[in-house]
Amino acid sequence: xxxxxxxxxxxxxxxxxxxxxxxxxxxxYDAAGLDLEIRVFDPARGDTLAHLLRNDVxxxxxxxxxxLVRREKAEPLLGIAAINHGGLETIQSVRQxxxxxxxxxxxxxxxxxxxxxxxxxxxxxxxxxGGDPGAAIIVDNQGREFTVDDIAAGEIDATFGGYWxxxxxxxxxxxxxxxxxxxDDIGAPRYHSYLLGTQESLVQSQPGLxxxxxxxxxxxxxxxxxxxxxxxxxxxxxIPYFPRSILRRSLDLITPSWTHEGRWGEQRIALLxxxxxxxxxxxxxxxxxxxxxxxxxxxxxxxxxxx
Length: 307
Hints:
This protein has two domains: about 1-85 and about 190-305, Periplasmic binding protein-like II (D-Maltodextrin-Binding Protein, domain 2, 3-Layer(aba) Sandwich), CATH 3.40.190.10; about 90-185, Periplasmic binding protein-like II (D-Maltodextrin-Binding Protein, domain 2). By secondary structure, it is α/β, with parallel strands linked by helices. Helix 1 crosses helix 9 (about 230-240), helix 8 crosses helix 9 (about 230-240) and helix 9 (about 230-240) packs across helix 10. Helices cover about 35% and strands about 20% of the residues.
């Protein structure tokens, strides 16, 4: 049995990871000769890609834009499967704020992580709606996840970057008083929010291991999509005390993002190329073509096709 380590992009029990949990519970990694350990990253030691680069872990889940930035620096990291076929980010506010469309964010306090890519995306969304992005007031959230209750209390006017399948589920403000705009719906280029990847050296030296890992993982995600009750149970075995209602709502929302036309894992040109071009146009990438060497679908199993 080969021990391998997978690092998640977030924390337990984030339902976006349900396929890994379920595949492990059902013994599919064991059947592939793999003893899987699942970890979350230590921010003091960098994100998942930083851990991968040091060979601290074998596989990891990470935002697609971060992979493209690192590949441009000649870091030997490689996307081997897509986790999500769309953006998970939102702009969130409340109706009492008077905000009715993205251009209304001009002059408002928006809590977010002020990364170059995040600011570029917010500015794009405001501009796309005919607003003045320069008038937006960026509030550095310093890693804090502001909730809709914080907005209603007047601490800020809106948030950018929280997920429609997670952050937007918290808080006590009634659903009909909330504003939740998915970036995909208000002018953002479509993109893979998260990819699964590894070190190039592992792909080159142990391609069989990569194939076995992806085979079991594909089984897990397809089963989790088809059997939400089993997926929820697998998540709850990891963190049994988290509110079931939140986990179930999140799982129901995010499951459709795992596949495209019944297929799990395919990193699609239709999402990669336009996003890379957008990142290049906004100064995040020096070239729009680097994605071609940053990902491969060569190791995806035939079983990633749903029956």
